[in-house]
Design brief:
241 residues; alpha+beta; Ubiquitin-like (UB roll); five-stranded mixed beta sheet; binds FE2/S2 (inorganic) cluster
């Protein structure tokens, strides 16, 4: 504790503004402090000294990972679901929130090539890993084979579940380029489609597998993900043509 503070507290001149400033107590970075008149480096608050440098200490760890081929870092809390980090902090809205409980597959992303339900996948588990979302799977000018077949066969109805469906299918084909019908059904069992597009989804996956096109590398640096702005610009250009 600083001797200078004790002097201040004993002095009538020092006490008066201190009492007034109790009304102005507020919190910053988890530490209580008085703004204003106390000596600048340390002050007793709630029977413990608080030093100014603490106010500026970062308590949230920085979590680094690769998102769609780009190195990124996040200061979100380590237990934040990856889905919210990707959607809210990195503004990639292709992965959808459905159940929030790992039951519907709408939020499916790849973490180190494995399809995961990002609504129940804490950010901390993405540390130093490769995260790929639907935005990193292909580009408007270079669609992933699954995306191309999806468009060609008009697979989606409302579309809400479809990014999750495609991400799960892409992980399946990466591991098993020629799955049987039963293997497709098994792999896709965790992805719910309320519009009931299951027959078209299965047929599209089998078509890609039959064409031998399922093993396209994902999120390689050369297939860098488009920014949200560039996708929107590409869409506008296509629409205006
Ligand atoms: S929103 Fe993640 S599994 Fe349903
Ligand atoms: S297309 Fe509507 S939920 Fe699957």
């Amino acid at each position: 504790m600083c001797g200078a503070n004790i002097c201040w507290r004993r002095s009538a001149i020092g006490r008066l503004p201190g009492e007034l400033l109790k009304l102005g107590l507020f919190e910053a970075g988890g530490h209580m402090y008085w703004p204003g008149l106390w000596p600048m480096h340390c002050m007793p608050v709630a029977h413990r000294p608080i030093c100014w440098p603490q106010l500026f200490q970062r308590e949230t760890p920085m979590i680094r990972f690769t998102l769609n081929g780009k190195d990124v870092q996040s200061v979100d809390a380590p237990d934040t679901p990856l889905l919210w980090v990707v959607r809210d902090s990195f503004k990639l809205k292709g992965s959808k929130f459905g159940c929030g409980a790992g039951l519907c597959g709408a939020c499916t992303m790849h973490v180190d090539g494995v399809a995961v339900q990002s609504c129940v996948w804490p950010l901390a588990r993405a540390e130093a890993k490769q995260v790929v979302t639907i935005e990193g799977l292909g580009t408007p000018s270079n669609l992933h084979p699954l995306q191309a077949v999806w468009v060609e066969r008009s697979v989606p109805q409302c579309g809400y579940c479809q990014s999750g469906q495609i991400m799960t299918a892409a992980a399946l084909l990466q591991n098993n380029p020629s799955p049987s019908e039963a293997e497709v059904e098994q792999a896709m069992a965790g992805n719910i489609c309320r519009c009931g597009c299951y027959p078209r989804i299965k047929a599209a996956i089998l078509a890609v597998a039959a064409a031998g096109a399922g093993l396209q590398p994902i999120a390689s640096p050369s297939a860098a993900p488009p920014s949200v702005a560039s996708v929107a610009a590409a869409r506008n250009t296509e629409e205006s043509v």
